[in-house]
Amino acid sequence: MATGGAELEVKREKLRAHAPLDEPAPITDLRVRQIRARDLLRGELEGPDLEQHVEESVLTTTFQKALGWGRANSIFPATFGLACCAIEMMSIVSPRYDIARFGAENMRASPRQADLLILSGRVSIKMAPVVRRLYDQMLEPKWVMAMGACSSSGGMFANYAVVQGADKFMPVDIHVPGCPPRPEAVVYGFNKLQRMILGSPEPGWRKRYNASGTEEWAREATGDASAEEIAAYEAARDLAASHEASRSQASRGGRA
Amino acid sequence: MNVHGGDILAETGEEVVGMSAVERTAAAEGLEQELFTINFEPHHPATHGVLRLLVSLEGEVVRDLKPIMGYVHTGIEKNCEDKSYWKVIPFVERMDYLSYFFNMEAFCGCVERLLELEVPPRAAYLRVIHMELNRIHSHLVWLGTSALDLGAMSMFFYCFRDRDRVLDLFEMSTGQRMHTRYFQVGGVFEDIPTGFAHNLKAFCAEMPSRLDQYEAILNRNEIFLERTRNVGVVPRERLLELGVTGPLLRAAGEPWDLRKVAPYEAYGDLEFNVPVGTVGDGYDRYRVRVQEMRESVRIIEQALDGLPEGAWIADDRKFVLPPRDELSTSMEALIHHFKLVTEGFRVPPGEAYFPIESPRGELGCFVLADGSAKPARVHIRDPSFSNMQSLRDMCMGGYIADLIQNLAMLDPILGGTDR
Amino acid sequence: MPDAPGLELIAKELNDAAEGSVLGTYHEHGQACLIVNPDRILDVLRWLRDSPGQEYRFLSSLHGVDYFPAEPRFGVVYELLNMPRVERLRVRAALADPGPDALPELDSCVPVFPGAEFPEREVYDFFGIVFRGHPDLRRILMPEEYVGWPQRRDFPVGGEPVIFTRDEPLMPRWYE
């Protein structure tokens, strides 16, 4: 170049020379990327190359998934502190167990503005109609987290005054055990709920015991369960019963 | 024109009515205003629990107030009659859910009084340390949520940050952040681990400066002063009539603290002051509680320095579990362990009442024993229940905003009120 | 606490002031207790609060106890406190069970100790003891329409039996 007037040799290369179709080159290959970008700008990229490029660089999704992503990452919890779990629920907003990193620090007092009802604490029989009314006032989509043992199942209070689980009068999406659950446990439950909202719930024990189909019937399902769901439930119950029988037989055999 | 806590609509003379045309006309025509009753539902943002208030308003002035409780009534007292004494401890803990160590202390102290069981000195000191830490924790949560109610949102984060440090200490010594089941009849469950004293000293060294920071935010804050000064004043005699105890009574000028007048556990050996207010308004209550936190730090430091060596639980195997290493060698220990775990210990018939000073006031436990392994009646005299009776006196004639502030400064814990 | 002789003195003076009010005394674990005829309870409380040697002005606690099957069945216990001397005295009003159709009655001590308002409502709520003259006697912790007196000894604790997976076939489709 210092001499000036030297001829620049222009050598045109085709993308296919570098990335033949039967063995497509990895995206990290700089030359392939360069050529592809050049062709895209010129409008010459077409066919499988275009598809591959779009797949790699453009995010496509279904509308449902996009909605799910939006909903999951900006849940507005409704502060519903009933008893001791309320203190631990307040502490998930605190700096240490920050729930703002999941987009949920905006605790709304009004049920009309809230998405997630965190039932933290024991539900007494006087309070149950109030909770139900609050739940009805929430707008769809709404979720319920039963935080702690008392709202999941009555907890340690098996008596006349506590409703044995909020399941008895309202649908609950996720239960977080503990008395009170650590804030990390609540955040874990929250993350699980987020995955449920995104549409890819974790199957958990159902995968291990081959019991898919035994999930609680969804809120939207009106009326009876379908025949397949009932069959799946019966199958799972038989499996559990056979486990129990074989275990008791083994113990009986062992004793004899 | 600003009359804090006063009754602005009582005087409808022309010179005191405001400048707007509407008000002047109304006064001139002598319009009667109807009382407007609103329902502060059990679920409201100033959540100090699920308390329902039926408030009758005239304009924005509160004319009548009825608190309706029972929304978190758990039947704990009834459930306790069904369980052995050992199992009652976790139940009773969950009553006043911010001061769980105090609940345990009231119950264990009552049963120890019935059994005439001596608590070893190390256990007494450990109990004092944990109770004072719990007092700090309770006041921090109170301060955070009250400041949040009054609008100072950053206080919430600061207080909960410090609260997490206290809970770390609890986790270190007892294994659980809240509801620790640490106090047992006869002492404490387990000795403190190595490193606990070091962490506790570090906490105590740092806490006073943190409290200075909090006071620097709120003490001379114009808005805070406007909202809390001379608001919610109830005369001391009226508070005594209503059975109110704790920081509310002390803010009104009565120097009554059960740790001083009737020392229990190791409080008799420790030197601390009891903060007493003068006026009895919201500001005094705030100052009393913050000062109590400082005094608690002092108590903890003294108790830690003077922590005696020895057993952390009483020796009497009839009531206290033997140490686990003895179970493999001694037959008697095994039998005692078995009896205690399955049936529980029996308490000779009698009744006792044991009052202690919890962060909210006098927490007393009444136990009626009938000779069996289960108590026949457990009743907790909860301070929030009695303090709630003064809410009406505090709020009458004030504004709704003052009602929120009064409720915050009253520091009710509805778990204790409803049991 | 007044010690045992002090307690006997109080009982004697009280019997002089109000005939037939003290039915017994009881001193154990360092605590003094007067067992009192329920019809004279207001006189007893007024005397204890106002007479110059006693001055038990602070009502610490008011609660009910069910001594079933011992008679008299109910006791309403007043824990009184004398603040200057730091002395506590327990007064128990021994009420008999009037049978399954009637409710035991007692005079309300709200005129004497205004702080008894909520505790008396609680005793009414849980034991069914009616306080005559109470300004607003209704249930405080249970729902207003609740039927039954939960804290009585013959009231069941309640709750539900736990259903384990192996018991589920016994109660098919319990989830409905």
Topology:
The complex is a heterotrimer of chains A (256), B (419) and C (176).
Chain A: H1 15-18, H2 30-42, H3 48-57, H4 63-72, E1 77-78, H5 84-91, E2 116-120, H6 128-137, E3 143-147, H7 149-153, E4 174-176, H8 183-198, H9 205-208, H10 227-255
Parallel strand pairs in A: 1-2, 2-3, 3-4
Chain B: H1 21-29, E1 36-40, E2 52-58, E3 61-68, H2 76-80, H3 85-93, H4 100-115, H5 121-150, H6 153-174, E4 183-184, E5 187-188, H7 196-218, H8 222-228, H9 236-242, H10 247-251, H11 258-261, H12 282-305, H13 331-342, E6 350-358, E7 361-369, E8 375-381, H14 383-387, H15 391-395, H16 400-410, H17 414-418
Chain C: H1 4-17, E1 22-28, E2 31-36, H2 41-50, E3 58-66, E4 74-82, E5 87-95, E6 105-107, H3 117-127, E7 130-132
Parallel strand pairs in C: 2-5, 6-7
Antiparallel strand pairs in C: 1-2, 3-4, 4-5
CATH A-level architecture of chain C: 2-Layer Sandwich
Question: What's the CATH H-level superfamily name of chain C?
Answer: NADH:ubiquinone oxidoreductase Nqo5 subunit
Helical proportion of chain A, percent range: 40-55%
CATH topology of the domain at 69-202 in chain A: Rossmann fold
Mean pLDDT over the full residue set of chain A: 78
Oligomer: heterotrimer
Q: What is the CATH topology assignment of chain C?
A: Beta Polymerase, domain 2
Q: What is the element string of chain C, with H for helices and E for strands?
A: HEEHEEEEHE
CATH architectural label of the domain at 69-202 in chain A: 3-Layer(aba) Sandwich
Please tally the β strands of chain A and state the result. Answer: 4
Question: How does this structure look, described?
Answer:
- The complex is a heterotrimer of chains A (256), B (419) and C (176).
- Chain A has 256 residues and is mostly helical.
- Chain A is built from 10 helices and 4 strands.
- A 4-stranded parallel sheet of chain A has the order 1-2-3-4.
- Chain B has 419 residues and is mainly alpha-helical.
- Chain B folds into 2 domains: 1-32, no CATH class; 76-316 and 347-418, Cytochrome-c3 Hydrogenase, chain B (Orthogonal Bundle), CATH 1.10.645.10.
- Chain B has 17 helices and 8 strands.
- In chain B, the strands form 3 sheets. Chain B has a 3-stranded antiparallel sheet with strand order 1-2-3. A 3-stranded antiparallel sheet of chain B has the order 6-7-8. In chain B, strands 4-5 form a two-stranded antiparallel ribbon.
- The longest helix of chain B has 30 residues, at 121-150.
- Chain B is globular.
- Chain C is an alpha/beta fold.
- Chain C has one domain (4-170): Beta Polymerase, domain 2 (2-Layer Sandwich), CATH 3.30.460.
- Chain C has helices spanning 4-17, 41-50, 117-127; strands at residues 22-28, 31-36, 58-66, 74-82, 87-95, 105-107, 130-132.
- In chain C, the strands form 2 sheets. Chain C has a 5-stranded mixed sheet with strand order 1-2-5-4-3. A two-stranded parallel ribbon of chain C has the order 6-7.
- Chain C is elongated and about 70 Å long.
- Chain C starts with a helix and ends in a 44-residue tail after the last strand.
- Classes of the chains: A mainly alpha (256), B mainly alpha (419), C alpha/beta (176).
- At the B-C interface, α2, α9, β6, β7 and β8 of B face β3 and α3 of C.
